[in-house]
Amino acid sequence: DALPISSAGLVAPGGMMVVATINRTLKAFALAKVGAEYVLGWLPRGTHDPRKFLKPAEVGDALQSAGMRVTASAGIAYNPLLDVWRVVENTDVNFMVTAVKA
Fold first, then answer.
1. Per-residue pLDDT at 6
2. Per-residue b/e over 58-81, b at no fewer than 16 CB within 10 Å?
3. Which of 29, 31, 72, 95 could pair with 35 in a Cys bridge, judged by C-beta atoms 3.0 to 4.6 Å apart?
4. SS3 of residue 102 by DSSP
């Protein structure tokens, strides 16, 4: 959680920050780590470090402790058949948190 805290210091009062990351779930490990790196070969092996995966609440707590007010959170899903990303409610794999500096 050091990244949201250190980056929040660069945001001006009233400014917005968006954090996008991978959730720390078994589903995220299977899809983002194993699937993307080892099965599909979309990314070099070792790109994702599961020890750095964060839960949405952890990101929100870190932002709040850095003087940010969380305004929204959402999941992000990739459709490989259409080659498009879309915003979804499910945050099991990829998600974003938006916050405003107080």
1. 83
2. bbbebbeebebebeebbbbbbeee
3. 31
4. coil
Instruction: Give per-10-residue mean pLDDT for the chain (102 aa).
Output: 74 96 96 91 90 94 93 95 95 97 91
Q: What is the pLDDT of residue 72?
A: 97
Query: What pLDDT is recorded for position 5?
Result: 73
Whole domain around residue 70: which residue ranges? 2-8+15-101
Structural domain count of the chain: 1
Unique residue bearing structure tokens 């964060």: 54
- Name the burial class of residue 52, with classes exposed (0-12), middle (13-18) and buried (19+) by CB atoms within 10 angstroms of its CB: exposed
Instruction: Check if the beta carbon of residue 66 is closer than 8 Å to that of residue 9.
Output: yes
Tell me what pLDDT residue 80 has. Answer: 86
Token code pair at residue 101? 């500096």
Nearest partner of 92 among 80, 65, 74, 79, judged by Cα: 74
Residue 73 near residue 91, CB atoms below 8 Å: yes
